Amino acid sequence: MQCVVIGSGCAGLTSALIMAKNGYNVTVVEKSVRTAPLLQGFERKGFYFDTGVHCLSGLDAGGPLRSLLEYLNVYEKLTYLPFSKDNSFAVHFPDGLVWQMPQGYDALQTSLVALFPQEEKGIKAFLQEVRALSHTYQYNADFQAIATHPLASKSFKDVVEQFISEPQVKMCLGILSNLFCGLLESEAPFVFFASSIGTYFRSSGTFKGGGRALFEAMQAELTNLDGRIVYNNGVADVIVDDNRQATGVVLDDGSYLSSDMLIATCHPACLSDILPEASLRRVRKTYYQELESTTSLLGVYGYTTKPIEELVQSNVIIASDTASADDVLSAELPIAKRQMLITSSETTKHGTSISLFTPAAYTEWARFEGKKPHQRINGYVEKKHAVAAEIVLAATRALPELKDYFSIVSVTTPLTIKDYCNAPYGAGYGVKHSVNQLPPTAAFPIKNMLLSGQAIVGPGILGAMTAGFVTCGDILGHTHLQSEIKNAVK
Ligand SMILES: Cc1cc2nc3c(=O)[nH]c(=O)nc-3n(C[C@H](O)[C@H](O)[C@H](O)COP(=O)(O)OP(=O)(O)OC[C@H]3O[C@@H](n4cnc5c(N)ncnc54)[C@H](O)[C@@H]3O)c2cc1C
After folding, report:
1. CA of 40 to the centre of ligand 1 (A)
2. Pick from 48, 66, 89, 312: most CB atoms within 10 A?
3. Which atom of ligand 1 is nearest to the CA of 453?
4. What is the fold, at CATH topology level, of the domain defined by 104-202?
């Protein structure tokens, strides 16, 4: 049986591994010039830079991401590097407060209560609710129980406001949801928040070698299972027969691959480019095309020759300088006031590689798009470098050393994410999993074709990987897959 997977990102590779483990002949097809552009970072000036893998959650013993990687025989090929127990994230607020966010619910609670003793009762009650629902991302969660949970229809804002009044506490609790899911307090469904961000509260870290090591481990296992990856040669057309059944794909170079099962992990808005005109009802096509996406990001990559203590097993977050929780992700704010994540991918004897990310609007950059992908209009490079200088200056608020010791090696904009990751509007985290829209499911109206990827379950490596399991579980049987995971997990 042939299985073709569209997209070699985390969800595509996860789906490929599961299908190959279950006897399918798998080919992963990637449109980008590189495989897994979000997993594999890049090298410049002797430094490695991660692109879409900086902070991972749920890798502690028994954690949801670890269990899935163990089942895939991938975890054993990697070395987990947990962030500092006492300070996984140093959050810098505009008023000068620096909150060292520890790992683990108890430590988190103690640290927040020490800072905001007047909110003790609320902090405890809120974290208890998060904890109670934090298992919901796990592939074997009881989804029925989740759907009927009393908080199922509430947003993060609804729930946090029940317990807490101090805006800074709310910001402390919600900031990872802004950064890693692209969601505002009022947009994040509480159950989604508890499951995605709850795993960061539980544990956070990365792998030695970052996203590249994760990619290489997944690729090696796929090779063991006789799977293959074709890249720089995307799916141009899905072939659908008269019974509305997908039978194969035609690639950009004109070659044909037949498929008994087709899994599409691309952004759902891309589907109309590759499906025959009449294969989807108009209402369905419009739904996929009009799904709201998350904001985009600007990235500045560089290195310092001086080690930066704050970035050893830790990350720095600069909270946005705005009074309104609805503006924290706004690209309308001047760069100096925007939220920022500062991380390090590696430290060598030559120095430390550092990445700075801040929200950005695609619309602000669209005027620089040329007629073809990767083509830019004059003025783009100048604008990119001017903005990068502003970002570095804003980062010196938290890390003054960057002023004298930071050299920029690359700057990415929403157009970079759009072209390299084939992400419509350069969305940083794909489809928005907000209270305002129903996310797509794996089920698809064309036979032998299913959807997967961050749009289905949620963004992040955990979300994308879980999506691979949800989709393959729909094909192979959830009971079968869940019991296989149970047997494989140590
Ligand atoms: C700057 C940045 C930083 C991030 N940091 C983190 C982090 O620290 N921790 C974390 O957990 N998550 C992070 N994320 C999010 C995480 O990287 C993503 O959620 C995850 O990698 C998405 O995986 P995916 O497989 O669903 O999608 P993708 O990786 O986007 O895979 C989809 C693939 O489909 C391909 N494709 C599209 N159309 C076609 C076609 N027609 N034919 C063939 N291929 C096609 C695309 O090129 C793409 O490679 C970050 C994201 C960004 C942008």
Report:
1. 10
2. 89
3. 26
4. Guanine Nucleotide Dissociation Inhibitor; domain 1 (1.10.405)
State the pairing for strand pair 89-92/235-240.
unpaired
Mean pLDDT estimate for the chain: 94
Distance CA 182, CA 428 (A): 8
Give the residue from 467, 450, 448, 449 showing the smallest Cα distance to 458: 467
The pLDDT confidence band at residue 151, using thresholds 50, 70 and 90, is confident
ipTM of the complex: 0.99
pLDDT digits (tens, 9 = 90+) for 195-214: 899 999 999 999 999 999 99
**Ligand 1 centroid to 305 CA: how many Å?**
30
* pLDDT class of 437 with cuts at 50, 70, 90: very high
Q: What is the DSSP string of 71-139?
A: HTT-GGGS-EEEPPSS-SEEEEPTTS-EEEE-SSHHHHHHHHHHH-GGGHHHHHHHHHHHHHHGGGGST
| Residue carrying structure tokens 């928040």 | 193
Reported CATH class of domain 2-36+56-79+208-291+432-488: alpha beta
Residues of the chain with CATH 3.50.50.60: 2-36+56-79+208-291+432-488
**Ligand 1 centroid – CA 7 distance (Å):** 9
Determine the distance separating the centroid of ligand 1 and the alpha carbon of 123, expressed in angstroms: 33
Element (H, E) at 342: strand 340-348
Looking at the chain, the domain(s) classified CATH 1.10.405 span 104-202
List the residue whose alpha carbon is closest to atom 53 of ligand 1.
428
Take atom 16 of ligand 1 and give the residue whose Cα is closest.
Answer: 460
Closest residue to atom 28 of ligand 1, CA basis: 9
**Protein residues with CB under 6 Å of any ligand 1 atom:** 6-12, 29-32, 37-38, 51-56, 180, 234-235, 265-266, 270, 274, 297, 299, 357, 417, 421-423, 428-429, 453-454, 459-461, 464
Cα of 11 to ligand 1 centre, how many Å? Answer: 8
pLDDT bin (cut points 50, 70, 90) of residue 137 is: low
- Please, which pLDDT band fits residue 153 given cuts at 50, 70 and 90? confident
- Between the CA of 142 and the centroid of ligand 1 the distance, in Å, is 27
Using CA atoms, how far apart are residues 285 and 277, in angstroms rounded to an integer? 10
User: pLDDT of 441-471, one tens digit each?
Assistant: 999 999 999 999 999 999 999 999 999 999 9
